[in-house]
Amino acid sequence: MPQRNGILLVVSGPSGSGKTTLCRRIANERETHYSISCTTRPPRPGEVHGRDYHFLSVEEFTRRVESGDFLEHACVHGNHYGTLRSEVIGYLEKGMDVVMDIDVQGAAQVRGCEDRMIRSSLVDLFVMPPDETELLARLSGRGTDSAEVIALRMHNALEEMRHWPEYTFRLLSGTQEEDYLRFKSLLLGERLRVSRLQP
Ligand code: 5GP
Q: Who is most buried in 15, 63, 112, 197, counting CB within 10 A?
């Protein structure tokens, strides 16, 4: 039987789009490996080192940049974020699919990557909130944040959304179940590509 190369599913979208929920769910269902990013931002309540992120000091992050450990890295909202090569390459080589939840700068770096395996495995998707009213409702969350904080998030989200035409696929968010069905269908469809099969 032919062996298949792994798929690198790169997912971006503003906060409030639901992209992280999609990425976590597909990994929890063991359809993909979830690429755990490194970040210099402090953990939020409930976040676990090594599960949600590898939380690094700025010095450690810089050292790993200099060692060439990152497939991509970027500064997002004042903090550093990066994807370790070790979270991606070995999995793809074994024919396993990998999902990455990264910002638009990181996605552009992966898209521009020269590595033949990365190029052939890449599937990039932008998740869009349905409209501004719904986005505002999602960003307002539990109603505990100040109007300034919500306005800043809204501004950042609208800024990030300008990048969707750079992606191959776009998912306009509806309900969580609809979104997940379409998200998983994309992965399942991509697995059928003849170009991914090694005779
Ligand atoms: P948060 O701090 O809310 O978890 O994430 C903030 C933003 O950073 C999100 O847009 C998320 O997709 C992005 N992000 C998370 N990990 C990475 C990464 O490894 N690389 C890049 N470029 N962005 C990331």
A: 15
The CATH number linked to 105 is 3.40.50.300
Asked if residue 199 belongs to a domain, the reply is no
Q: Is the CB of 83 under 6 A from ligand 1?
A: yes
How does pLDDT run across 42-88, given as a tens digit for each residue?
999 999 999 999 999 999 999 999 999 999 999 998 899 999 999 99
Nearest by Cα to 113 from 6, 42, 8, 26: 8
Model pTM score: 0.95
Nearest CA owner, ligand 1 atom 22:
106
- For residue 41 and ligand 1, the question of a CB distance below 6 A is answered with yes
Is the Cβ atom of 14 under 6 angstroms away from ligand 1? no
